[in-house]
Amino acid sequence: MQLDSILRSALFVPGSRPERFSKAIASGADIVIVDFEDAVEEELKAQARDHLATYLTENPGTSVVVRINASGHRMHRDDIDFCASHRGVAAVLLAKAETLEQIHVVAKSEKPVWPLIESALGLANLKAISAAPAVQRLTFGALDLAFDLGLRAASGAAYRIFDQVRYQLLVNSAVHHLAKPLDTVFPNIGDPAALRSFAQDARDLGFAGMLAIHPSQVAVIHEVFTPSQGEIDWARRVIDAAQNAPGAFRLDAKMIDAPVIAEARRIVAFYSS
């Protein structure tokens, strides 16, 4: 798939669990992220690359994103070389992205780079990171960021900080013409109602979708981030009316102008993709 297009869900699967690769892909997630970093024990990291190499060879039509180990990790360069050598790797998710120099190193893979912002330094350098030509999309890791900042991750106070992080991701994505960012993971797998509320907030903030940690989260995420039939019907009516209306006009007692028309076109484009 084209990863600069519509992407609602990105589902993590550990690289050390090859028996889960096909299950993750079958979940319906828009893209699967094979994790070489936090989900994989140190002694299994090289084996994780071997597992994915075998899977991509046996399933040549498969596309995945790979979360590689952070800069400075002993496996970092090997992970980059792996991504460069496999056509099935559609993008590289850089764990703990912090500097422009790190992005340049990962860009040698000749794959789009998704910086994962997980530290104060990453936030401080977000403008420079976002401007790198290889960067395609931004996202962040709330739990690691909370640890680095000394926040209680599940607290309301931490959520206020995370919203400021989201603001920075949105602004830098717009300024540098990146694909819309992905929101962080929702860690409570057993609470779909809370997941729905979390996803709705991300959608309303302008995020394209979110990271997922379990296949059961995918359906809820897709429902939230996919325009409803009512929204699609409204968007088509707006576009039809705009063809014969100069400038701003009224529809259903509401003012319709250029930004509203643009949003209607976005909704219809989503439906048609």
Topology:
Blueprint: E1 9-14, H1 21-26, E2 31-35, H2 45-58, E3 64-68, H3 76-85, E4 89-94, H4 100-107, E5 113-117, H5 120-124, H6 126-131, E6 139-140, H7 142-149, H8 156-175, E7 182-183, H9 192-205, E8 209-212, H10 218-225, H11 229-242, E9 249-251, E10 254-256, H12 258-272
Parallel strand pairs: 1-2, 1-8, 2-3, 3-4, 4-5, 5-6, 7-8
Antiparallel strand pairs: 9-10
Helix pairs in contact: 9-10, 11-12
Any descriptors?
273 residues; alpha/beta; TIM Barrel; 2 domains; 8-stranded parallel sheet; 12 helices
How does this model look, in words?
- The protein is 47% helix and 15% strand.
- Helix 1 links the parallel strand 1 (9-14) and strand 2.
- Strands 6-5-4-3-2-1-8-7 form an eight-stranded parallel beta sheet. A two-stranded antiparallel ribbon has the order 9-10.
- It has two domains: 9-225, TIM Barrel (Alpha-Beta Barrel), CATH 3.20.20; 229-272, no CATH class.
- It is α/β, with parallel strands linked by helices.
- The protein has twelve helices and ten strands.
- It is globular.
Structural class: alpha/beta
- CATH homologous group name of the largest domain: Phosphoenolpyruvate-binding domains
Structurally, how many domains make up the residues? Answer: 2
Report the uncertain regions. none
Task: Please state the second-level CATH architecture of the largest domain.
Answer: Alpha-Beta Barrel
For the biggest sheet, the summary is:
8 strands, parallel
Spatial extent as radius of gyration: 20 Å
Mean pLDDT: 94
Q: How far do the termini sit from each other?
A: 11 Å
